[in-house]
Amino acid sequence: MAQFVDWDLAAATAGALSKSGPKASLDEATEVVNDLRRLTDEAAGHVVAYTGLQAQVAHPPVRVVDRRDWAVANIAGLRDVITPLVSRAAGDRQPGALTDAIGSRVTGVQAGTVLGYLSGRVLGQYEVFSGDPGQLLLVAPNIVEVERKLHADPRDFRLWVCLHEVTHRTQFTAVPWMRGHFLGQVQAFVDASQAGGDNFVDRVRRGVGTLAESIRDPQSRASVLDIVQTPAQRAVLDRLTALMTLLEGHAEFVMDGVGPEIIPTVEQIRAGFNRRREAGNPLEKAIRRLLGVDVKMRQYAEGRKFVHGVVDRVGMAGFNKVFDSPLTLPRLEELGDPDAWVARVHGPISGSPPTVA
Q1: CA angle 325-329-333, nearest 5°?
Q2: Which residues, 6+ apart, have CB-to-CB distance to 184 below 8 Å?
Q3: pLDDT tens-place string over residues 294-337
Q4: How far is CA 353 from the centre of its chain?
Q5: CA dist 71 to 118, 212, 337, Å?
Q6: Distance from C-alpha of 145 to C-alpha of 28, rounded to nearest angstrom
Q7: In angstroms, rounded to a whole number, what is the distance separating the alpha carbons of residues 152 and 131?
Q8: Averaged pLDDT, 257-280
Q9: Predicted model pTM
Q10: Which residue in 28, 166, 176, 206 has the most C-beta neighbors within 10 A?
Q11: Cβ 173 vs Cβ 48: under 8 Å
Q12: Do the beta carbons of residue 244 and residue 41 sit within 8 Å?
């Protein structure tokens, strides 16, 4: 079977569509890169002290990238992981070399369009597809652009971003099974697609096409999840949703816990950033809906509330049992009921709850 996506074309398209970012001299750009590297190390110490989670595996140093390099890194990771999964799901489908070649090029342009758009908005990412245990990426031009728009103190805003992203790195390096579990759920999601009547490759291509079209015309009300999801995938999607809600909520909880102690302007940054999240032109709002980013916004709030509720009841060390094994991860229904998770994992709790350190 020919490749599902022409990844080289996707990279070229993303590079062509990625904007250069805010203006900065060479000296200014060099200073930003060095600052983000230093603040990443500073944030790492604070995250370890606050969470009690220590890296169990070696990880590469942070990569400070521009928008094009962010897109290229994500394309490389998707090619390494998604292509074999999609090929397996496609089974014996043999549409013909010409049809497949045309389809892969169309999907390549569409995927590049989506990644080119996202490359101008992502501040940072712990990218887990490219290798074990993953790679922390910070997108320097986007961080500088947002801090300028918010009129934020550069050091404070950059450290605030680093706290969030370093927490994600800690989740995967302090919990060595986390990456394999996550990729296993992605595999299960693709495998479950074979229960549907439609060919999975065709559905995914329609989904990517819908995303690309929405960038040009934001009037569509379709959701990518509606396009690619089959009934058999919903149970897997619930597990993935619960996992991502936990990880995002935990990062937000750490930011809010550490931030006031080390970032003097954190309240102004949080207020301005929340306003930025809620705002956006019609195109941005449509893209957020189609990509499920609105769901991600809810994950931040719901996940943070779950983590806070558990820590209130059993302390940070008690919360960290969530990372003991896949069996101790919260179920989707437990995210709104911390008591249910505590009862399942810790058993009945007597006496006064421990205080938060």
Answers
A1: 155
A2: none
A3: 565 566 788 999 999 999 999 999 999 999 999 999 998 999 99
A4: 32
A5: 8, 15, 37
A6: 13
A7: 34
A8: 89
A9: 0.87
A10: 166
A11: no
A12: no
Q: Are 182 and 62 in contact (CB under 8 A)?
A: no
3-state secondary structure the chain: CCCCCCHHHHHHHHHHHCCCCCCCCHHHHHHHHHHHHHHHHHHHHHHHHHHCCCCCCCCCCCEEECHHHHHHHHHHHHHHHHHHHHHHHHCCCCCCHHHHHHHHHHHHHHHHHHHHHHCCCCCEEEECCCCCCCEEEEEHHHHHHHHHHCCCCHHHHHHHHHHHHHHHHHHHHCCCHHHHHHHHHHHHHHHHHHHCCCCHHHHHHHHHHHHHHHHHCCCCCCCHHHHHCCHHHHHHHHHHHHHHHHHHHHHHHHHHHHHHHHCCCHHHHHHHHHHHHHCCCHHHHHHHHHHCHHHHHHHHHHHHHHHHHHHHHHHHHHHHHHHCCHHHCCCHHHCCCHHHHHHHHHCCCCCCCCCCC
Residues 6+ apart with CB under 8 A from 316: 50, 51, 52, 356, 357
Residue type, 218: P
Of 327, 84, 326, 80, whose CA–CA distance to 190 is shortest? 84
Q: How sure is the predictor about 357, in pLDDT bands with cuts at 50, 70 and 90?
A: very low
Alpha carbon distance 342, 308 (integer Å):
12
Nearest alpha-carbon partner for 167 in 240, 241, 246: 246
Q: Which residue has the tokens 């015309």?
A: 217
Q: In this structure, is the dihedral angle defined by the CA atoms of residues 327, 330, 333 and 334, taken in order, positive or negative?
A: positive
Residues 230 and 299 sit within 8 Å (Cβ to Cβ): no
What would the pLDDT profile of 219-253 be if each residue is shown by its tens digit? 655 555 555 566 677 788 888 888 988 999 999 99
Length of the chain: 357
